[in-house]
Amino acid sequence: MSGEIAPPLARSTLDRAAHRRTDPVWLAEAWLRGRVLVLDSTAEGRTLIRTEGTPPPVVLLSAGELPPGSEATAMFLGIEPDGVPVFAVDTPLPALPGTRAVGLRDVGHLLSDRDAGLFTTALALLNWHLRHGYSSASGAPTEMDEAGWSRIDRNGVRIWPRTDPAMIVLVHDGMPGPEGRCLLGNNAAWPGTAGERRFSCLAGYVEPGESAEAAVLREVCEEVGVGVERITYVGSQAWPFPGSLMLGFLATADPEHPVQIDPTEIAYARWFSRQEIGAALAGRTVDVGGGARLLLPPPSSIALFLIHRWLDGWLEPSDGAGHGPGL
User: For the chain, which terminal residue's Cβ has fewer other Cβ atoms within 10 angstroms, N or C?
Assistant: First the structure.
């Protein structure tokens, strides 16, 4: 069993304290006593973690350790359980002994609930600001306002952060035991790696006027030509690369139905048994053809969380009766 109860980037201990975002007097005082997470947008939003500790803690600095004027573009993340406010700033990472620079994709699953929530929120906000330097309504330049939670142009037109909803689904055959199968795909846009081929869950953006469940039906049909049933919502997590909310589902399909890929989106798609997925997770080679071995999604992704739910969610009692996935 994986033991995971929530997707890796769906964890947080922070009180966002939204009512403080428009209180400049409180924010000025909070900045002086707060903790600050440093992100570097020139290094893909990396931050610093300590090289010692399990889980590895993120590095939080004080205002006095930052370049002068950092408070002007500080993003207020919220208040910790101990009452200390936390901010994030975009500035080059300092050289500190006993630390290393990391990306959220690489370490999100390793962090504590507190640090995963801080890093995910800060990166999501940062990426939104980087993409909204101009107003979509007026075309005028915008500047940060409301402690990082909005942008405003010279005419007073305000915009707020938005998140793009996307569905992601693990399609499986509904069968118990090691021979139960799931359908995974290799995205045509993913870079190739010699001797390896990554397979993951099927995913796509929710279109205007569409429910998440309808998007599951549509995307699976478009990408691999398979109809699905028993669509079950599992959970969600932010995926700030740059600004998605991944809505995770399980769904069943008939593995005897021919898989017909859309080559503009999917390069390869095939069914894998639990035995094969378990072997790949254990580090053993699973041949996917052409001399390539199976790679699964990265640990910080909701895709791997869904795979674990399917892999772990079936019991095999001594009487041979199967039980459905525990959601």
Answer: N
